[in-house]
Amino acid sequence: MGAFCGIVVNVHVGVDLAAAAAAHLTDDTAARFLVTAFNSTSNKVFTDVYFISEYAAPPIMAFALWRRTTCGRGTEGS
Fold first, then answer.
1. DSSP 8-state class, residue 73
2. DSSP structural state of residue 77
3. What percent of the chain has pLDDT over 90?
4. CA dihedral 23, 27, 29, 35 (to 10 degrees)
5. For every residue of 35-63, which 3-state class applies, written as one string?
6. Residue-range definition of the domain harbouring residue 31
7. CA within 13 Å, CB half, 34
8. Is residue 11 part of a domain?
9. Alpha-carbon distance 45 to 39, whole Å?
10. Are the C-beta atoms of 38 and 7 separated by less than 8 Å?
């Protein structure tokens, strides 16, 4: 989920920058457009989910590996 949100955020940023560059806007208008686009609700939600999942994934993976029972822990045969 986090990787998908990261992709969406990166594509959103690229599309916004391309739109601002292709529209031949003045510097102030382009800056206003980019600030508005980057502060949109959808962009904030995707960015928040991306960062939360990036920081939540390692502890969840560590817990899952610690609690695994289907395979050995690497100490067999020593």
1. -
2. T
3. 38
4. 100
5. HHHHCCHHHHHHHHHHHHHHHHHHHHHHH
6. 2-67
7. 17
8. yes
9. 10
10. no
